[in-house]
Specification:
The chain has eight helices and no strands. The protein has about 240 residues and is an all-alpha fold. It has one domain. α1 runs parallel beside α5, α4 runs antiparallel to α5 and α5 runs antiparallel to α6. The chain is globular.
């Protein structure tokens, strides 16, 4: 069963990315949806899961502190390292795209790790986690492609990163053959990616979505992205 789940995760991510590529002439709307989806994943999935997994092993302030530190760390990396270039050098834009797509891909890898570890607990728990992961894999593909395209990356480059992101959960599932992590450790990782995703969504995708475009429809698109992820996560958690 876990083999078919890995294949399904790859296919769902690829479909989302191909959808974004097909509608790249509506990139501002896709970016708006992506911003809402990334923020929605952080608020409605990663953050609650991080608090639950860390549980009583640490004070809640520890978990929220990790989220805040991760947000600040990504901001520093983005502003002072990635953007340490002249404005006329387009390399920095591509690097920002790679950084964002890379973060999303690592998150997809951890999704696969979560599935593999959950199946080690029991098949029932594994299925529940797999459904939750598959529910937002489609938007993961959209978000990865959006990060590359909005930073000036080519269609070929977007496809390459989409393939990386699509394969990441399958590799994550496979990797759990060789190691295990505690619930608390996994919770810390999810808290870190919560901070990353909040920065990506609020500071990169959201401002770019309405730059030189009507705010009304991009705002609707962002709300739709958040609402979609909320309902998908709620349904997956049932």
């Amino acid at each position: 069963m876990i083999f078919f789940i890995a294949i399904a995760a790859v296919c769902a991510t690829l479909l989302g990315g191909l959808f974004a590529l097909r509608l790249k002439d509506r990139l501002h709307l896709i970016l708006g949806f992506s911003a809402g989806a990334v923020i929605g994943v952080a608020f409605f999935d990663l953050i609650p899961e991080a608090f639950e997994l860390i549980g009583d092993s640490h004070d809640p302030a520890f978990t929220s502190g990790i989220i805040g530190l991760a947000f600040a760390a990504y901001m520093i990396l983005d502003r002072f390292i990635v953007l340490h270039c002249h404005d006329h050098d387009h390399t920095h834009g591509h690097t920002r795209g790679f950084l964002g797509a890379g973060s999303l891909s690592i998150h997809s890898f951890l999704d696969g790790v979560a599935i593999g570890l959950a199946f080690k607990v029991s098949p029932a728990v594994g299925v529940i986690v797999a459904i939750a992961v598959l529910a937002h894999d489609f938007s993961d593909g959209i978000n990865t492609v959006s990060m590359i395209l909005k930073n000036g990356g080519s269609r070929i480059m977007a496809l390459k990163w989409l393939l990386v992101d699509a394969l990441a959960p399958a590799l994550g599932i496979l990797s759990t053959i060789f190691f295990s992590v505690t619930s608390s450790q996994l919770g810390v990782l999810l808290a870190v990616f919560s901070g990353f995703f909040l920065y990506i969504g609020a500071s990169e995708l959201l401002p770019e979505s309405h730059h030189s475009h009507p705010v009304r429809w991009t705002t609707v698109s962002t709300i739709l992205g958040m609402a979609t992820l909320y309902f998908v996560i709620q349904i997956a958690g049932v």
